[in-house]
Amino acid sequence: MHIDKDLVAASATPMVLGILSEGESYGYAIVKRVNELSDGRMNWTDGMLYPLLHRLERNGLVRASWGRSEAGRRRKHYAITEAGLEALAERREQWSVVEEALRRVWEAVPRPEYPGPESAGGFA
Question: Which parts of the chain have pLDDT scores under 50?
């Protein structure tokens, strides 16, 4: 399933902060956790994740430190800060309002039929 980039962008910060609230992690493990949490329906890339982590670090929401993998390779580990926990709580509240409004809209109207690529008039 393709998830629109606007939805990915909107959910990326709270997703990463939520994952880091579980404990310190590194890039590959964060990507893997997103994949697990979405049952494989969200496939993040390094090119999407690392600019986000760098922005969160610049904004003081995460801190980074160098560590070593079990194999002895150096890798950067990220941990949520106190400001990051506060931002996560705020984003969680915001997301709840949006989710509730969407749920109400979807309950009020019938679910549209997805035409599928074969009925797209040759513009698939």
Answer: 122, 124
